[in-house]
Amino acid sequence: MTSKNDNEETSRIKLLEKRLERERKARHSAEAIAEEGLRELYQKNKQLELLNAIALSITESDGIEEIFHAVLRQIGTYLEFKAGRVCPLNPGIKSLLKSPIWYGSEAYSFYDAFRQKMDQDLALSGILSSESEAPITIRPTADLDNATLRELFAHYEIDNYLAVPVIINDHIALTLYFFGSKQKTQTSETDKLLRQIAAQLGVHLERELIRAQARIDMSRDLLTGLANRRYIYETIDRILIGNQNNVMPKTSILVVGFDNFRHLNDTFGHDLGDRIIQEASRRIIEMIKILPDNATATVGRVAGDEFAIILEDLADTDTVEQEAAKILQSLSMPYQSFDHPFPCTASGGLVHFNHATKTSFQVFSDVDTALQYAKQKGGANLTVFGDAMRQMTYRRRIMAANVNRGLSQDEFVLHYQPLISVADQSLIGFESLIRWRNADGTLITPIEFLPIADQSGLTIPIGQWVLKNGLKAIGRWGNVLKDYPRFKLGINISPSHFMATDFGDECLNLLNENEVSPDKICVEIVESTILENNPIVLKNFDFLRKNGIAIAIDDFGTGYSSLSYLQKYKPDTIKIDKEFITNISNNSESQKIVTAIIELAEKLDVSVIAEGVETKEDFLFLSRLGCEFAQGYYFSKPVSEADASQMLHGISNKWANRNAVN
Amino acid sequence: MKGVVFNVVETIIEKEFGAEMWDQLLESAELDGAYTSLGNYPDEELYALVDAASQKLSISAAETLKWIGKRAMPHFQEALPYLFENYHHSEEFIKDVNNIIHPEVKKLYPGAVCPHFHMAQASRETLTLVYNSPRKLCALAEGFIESTAELYGNKIEISQSECVHHGSERCVFVVEWVS
Question: What is the pTM assigned to this prediction?
């Protein structure tokens, strides 16, 4: 071999080595790029997993506390922190959290002690105030301004922390804090990632807050800001459900109501009524503030003028009753409004929970019963629901069931009391009166069963029965009524029946069915029916009048007589209550009142029937006053349909006789 | 500049002049030349290689770039075949360069900076392309266009009405497809 060849070989080898070196370098750099790419991919994957897990927690967790636990755990694990805590600033979120929310890696023995210390000593949310603009980065705890905090962190070997603010409506609603001790490497992506999570959390929390507010609104009474009936029911249910282990909690419910509130509202207007309700709610709140230690109370407005107070954990039933009495007392103090004290007494019904207490419905039924008893005793009274009352309620229920059966099995009958023209004592009609002929044949008067029927929602079925059977009787009397051109059958209709939207149609249909002319009946309603000022009442009133059905105001003078309604409603007839008529000849007060009523009625062109005429003296007196019509025992007690028919035929009665003679 | 461009240049030089020529160009440009298609390298390294080649070939830098461009497309096709397979005519390919080809390139090579060509259909067969890039590699672009036409077996006539190297603010090519 020549040296030239050697040289060529050598330089060729060098060249090849150089190319080899170049290729090796290219390969290494390609591998490095690929590895970096894989690492990035891995990181991205982890980030996606985190975002995914958080999105899942937010949508699937049950309640906001669970969401916070999940989010703390997920971020904490991802960034390898030892502990984390949610520090709420927004009062709405604070109220949704029952206790501090922590994340802690149990592997760290310091965790419990650290978290107790943090919860006790420090308002953590105050560590950093303007985090929103700053990048979200892990910072050394040594840089904190607050020396106490610095020392605390140093003690627990926490070298760094991370604060992630969650913004709602441009304000930091809460901050997620994380604490760690290892040196951490943070990629530039972390800030973006955490912001994304915080934004997602913020949107969800905002929605939760709106939802929570809606829940509060739904359970609140607008006038007083107290809980409403629904909330009180739910609270009772919660107490009862929470008590399934049969250890009876010391719970009682007091329902208080004013004794004369409707009168107040009717007389002075709802504005005053509302003010008194508001004042009453304040008084109740004041009273429950001074309940003995450990006792709690939930107050709600459960009806127009009724408040319910759930009392928990008072020492014993005596104490509860004392406290209840105090509340009633405070409610019964005069109300100062429009510079004028309004006297308003309140009554209360009280139920102590016991082992038999099962449902909120039962609780309210019992307490309503107790309140009704209190009011029936004359008001300003506190009645505790007891076994005797339960018995009575039970008997009432039986009675209600019987009424129902009575209706379906035709145990009711109508009796008829004659209506007399005072001028010539002629018969001009009857008032129909319902009687219940019990299985044993005894007759029960409405006073005994109507109040129960009313409480059991049977008033309307009874009214319908009366209406139907009254019209049938008129049909049966038939031709003889031609001799009585002014004949009317009075039919009593209860307020709730008269308030039914289809009452007018019901009357017309029944008149048609029985082929009775509308001018043969007179619907008798009590004053309170029209005092309700109910638009349906006014509508029905007009409808009946337009269709030729007369309307009489029954028991006139006993209610909250407001004469203005006579002008507004223009009834055909008023029936002066027997309270003023019976013994009128000897009672100057009654004489004055009745004289005034008759004069007024004349002026308004309303005819007058005097009820309860029992003696000749009273009759003569009314006659002198110019009273047009009368009814009462002086003429006849209510009689059976057969007897009424005989009267109409002039067989058995002096008025009928006289009428026949005329 | 993406490593894939250096790889294509290396392949062209080796194919035309042999591996030694690439060694010599790297040596005279004082570059170590370890280019991987995934990497990112300074633009200056490409310019230095072009200068070295232009001296070796005794032609201008622009002509060198154009010479490289004219031979480039088959090698790009070899490296990235799927970018080419949906097209049957160079005009379709060129018209899609902004919307499909370059976005695809960016998917493969994150961080790649690709020029945007403003295009206008001057007539049915004539397309105006505006090249406006701080790299000022219009000659390379012209070569790429010619190479693309050749790849799809089309005949074109290309003229440059404006050029940044001759006082214009941009470079404008008028490409007419003869077939």
Answer: 0.48
